[in-house]
């Protein structure tokens, strides 16, 4: 069976007009002789009826448990799925709707942020054999006791790839409101450009470092099972971004597309807090601190451990927890709040001289102070103040001529 999974995000199903566009994409693929599984997000954004944030606004998450919250917010995608199926049926095609649970998606019991542990695709396969278009509510599954769970923000991307994997699909198409993955967030950098081809690791880095165009877990899962991913625009016929494994073909293609450019894209993550902890040479102190940080589930980033100083950043949501750990242990520390982590992502950039120098110069020309840096084989990170974010993104985008 030639199975294609198509995922439509919130804005792609928010209005009659956008749902008609989505339906066109679905019917076109179906008419080309493919079996179609559609995955949908909840309709629209905060304020729109039945959007996830609108539903959350109806309750007080401090007094009701995560299990009940999941029951509530899983409804957004179910409503969206039925309404999109209605559009498909109106056009004379047969569609059937399944919740995540009914589609065979089994998760652990981590309500609100569950991981998919198994998918039983039998029910979907039966419908596909009957030539039905199967519309699945994204972002949700159930634990092994039949309790409804949700997968966290952006979770419909994960649903799409998990189903694609279980169904052994040809590829997964992620439809959204931009023409593909771009060299920077187009809302901030107006001359950002669509990237036609990327490899999984670049997209993973981009997603992990804040570009919300696709969920990092979805990219990781696609890479593990070698499922081609294509990011496309519901509202246009642009080719989009195709994500694949690095091979000879990819490298040749890339040379053509990139003119040997070393940098692919730039992204950012706000809400970071830098901690600078001064320490005497008592190592047991550090070990105790690290144990506390680990047992509190605080994840560290941009880690620089020097003999007398330990520097790292954390998400601002963990700030209060870490401060109380440090105070309890009588540590001496400084914090810098409202930081933003800028990521300059490339392909095999380590070993190419001068990249860091260009980043530093481009930022200093704009009077942007760099608080910390780090690097890997495919990324250079700079920590700056949040208020400098837009300026920094534009300056780096220009410096590496990503608009070309
Ligand atoms: P959906 O609801 O379809 O899942 P999202 O809002 O999750 O859509 O993701 C699409 C958005 O991601 C775009 O509208 C864009 O503003 C944002 N975005 C951030 N960085 C990038 C990037 N590098 N390329 C494309 N889009 C990006
Ligand atoms: Mg999304």
TrEMBL record:
Residues in ACT domain copies: 344-404
Protein's UniProt name: Aspartokinase
Annotated substrate binding sites: 77
GO terms of biological process kind: diaminopimelate biosynthetic process; homoserine biosynthetic process; lysine biosynthetic process via diaminopimelate; threonine biosynthetic process
Family the UniProt entry places it in: Belongs to the aspartokinase family.
The species this protein was found in: Keratinibaculum paraultunense
One GO cellular component term: cytosol
Pathway(s) annotated for this protein in UniProt: Amino-acid biosynthesis; L-threonine biosynthesis; L-threonine from L-aspartate: step 1/5; Amino-acid biosynthesis; L-methionine biosynthesis via de novo pathway; L-homoserine from L-aspartate: step 1/3; Amino-acid biosynthesis; L-lysine biosynthesis via DAP pathway; (S)-tetrahydrodipicolinate from L-aspartate: step 1/4
Protein role: Catalyzes the phosphorylation of the beta-carboxyl group of aspartic acid with ATP to yield 4-phospho-L-aspartate, which is involved in the branched biosynthetic pathway leading to the biosynthesis of amino acids threonine, isoleucine and methionine.
The enzyme's E.C. designation: 2.7.2.4
One term of GO molecular function: ATP binding
Binding site for ATP: 7-10, 176-177, 212-213
Enzyme class: transferase
Alphabetized UniProt keyword annotations: Amino-acid biosynthesis, ATP-binding, Diaminopimelate biosynthesis, Kinase, Lysine biosynthesis, Nucleotide-binding, Transferase
Lineage: Bacteria, Bacillati, Bacillota, Tissierellia, Tissierellales
ATP-binding found in the keyword field: yes
């Amino acid at each position: 069976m030639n199975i294609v999974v198509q995922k439509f995000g919130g804005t792609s199903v928010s209005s009659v007009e956008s749902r008609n566009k989505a339906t066109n994409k679905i019917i076109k693929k179906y008419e080309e002789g493919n079996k179609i599984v559609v995955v949908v997000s909840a309709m629209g954004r905060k304020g729109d009826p039945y959007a996830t944030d609108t539903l959350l606004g109806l309750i007080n998450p401090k007094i009701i448990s995560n299990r009940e919250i999941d029951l509530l917010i899983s409804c957004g995608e179910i409503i969206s799925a039925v309404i999109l199926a209605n559009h498909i049926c109106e056009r004379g095609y047969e569609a059937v709707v399944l919740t995540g649970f009914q589609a065979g998606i089994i998760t652990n019991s981590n309500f609100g942020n569950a991981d998919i542990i198994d998918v039983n695709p039998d029910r979907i396969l039966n419908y596909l054999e009957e030539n039905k278009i199967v519309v699945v509510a994204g972002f949700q599954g159930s634990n092994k006791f039949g309790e409804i769970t949700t997968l966290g923000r952006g979770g419909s991307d994960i649903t799409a790839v998990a189903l694609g994997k279980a169904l052994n699909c040809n590829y997964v198409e992620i439809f959204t409101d931009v023409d593909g993955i771009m060299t920077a967030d187009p809302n901030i950098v107006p001359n950002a450009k669509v990237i036609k081809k990327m490899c999984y690791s670049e997209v993973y880095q981009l997603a992990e470092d804040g570009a919300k165009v696709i969920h990092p877990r979805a990219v990781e899962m696609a890479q593990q099972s070698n499922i081609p991913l294509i990011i496309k625009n519901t509202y246009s016929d642009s080719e989009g971004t195709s994500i694949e494994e690095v091979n000879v073909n990819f490298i040749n293609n890339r040379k053509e597309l990139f003119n040997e450019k070393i940098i692919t894209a730039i992204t950012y993550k706000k809400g970071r807090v830098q901690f600078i902890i001064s320490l005497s040479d008592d190592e047991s102190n550090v070990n105790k601190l690290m144990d506390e940080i680990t047992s509190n589930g605080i994840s560290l980033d941009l880690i620089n451990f020097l003999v007398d100083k330990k520097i790292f950043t954390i998400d601002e949501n963990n700030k209060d927890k870490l401060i109380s750990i440090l105070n309890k242990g009588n540590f001496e520390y400084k914090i810098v709040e409202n930081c933003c982590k800028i990521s300059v992502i490339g392909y095999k950039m380590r070993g190419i001289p001068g990249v860091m120098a260009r980043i530093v110069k481009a930022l200093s020309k704009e009077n942007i102070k760099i608080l910390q840096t780090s690097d890997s084989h495919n990324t250079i990170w700079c920590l700056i103040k949040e208020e400098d974010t837009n300026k920094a993104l534009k300056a780096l985008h220009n410096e590496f001529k990503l608009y070309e």
